[in-house]
Amino acid sequence: MINNNQKGVSIYLTIMIMSVLLAISLGLSAIIIGGAKMAGVLGNSVKAYHAADTGMEKALYCIKLYSGICNTSITCANTTNTFSTGYGWTVTMFDNTGTACTTTVSTIKSEGTYLTTKRKLEVSF
Description:
Blueprint: H1 9-65, E1 80-82, E2 87-94, E3 107-114, E4 117-124
Antiparallel strand pairs: 1-2, 2-3, 3-4
């Protein structure tokens, strides 16, 4: 006697195994794509940080060049620079009362940008 109740079981098992494999591959691809996007954003963050560092270094050079005198007529102070590559920085210098600096500087804030990512640095002395 041949039992005919087993017809179609192999097709059912094949479809189930293929469904599981498809779900695993879609899950892995979502993780890989998410990681790639995060790596791109992290790269932009590093570039924005270095742009902020560039602005900070320029401000410190300005202070050294002008013997610590910060005034709005000095081109190094309160600068905003943007390049065609998407990099940019903004530097603001403050005195110890929190107002825009006039003769002494105790805080420098620099904001670097790259595309839409921004990073800020602050130095107090």
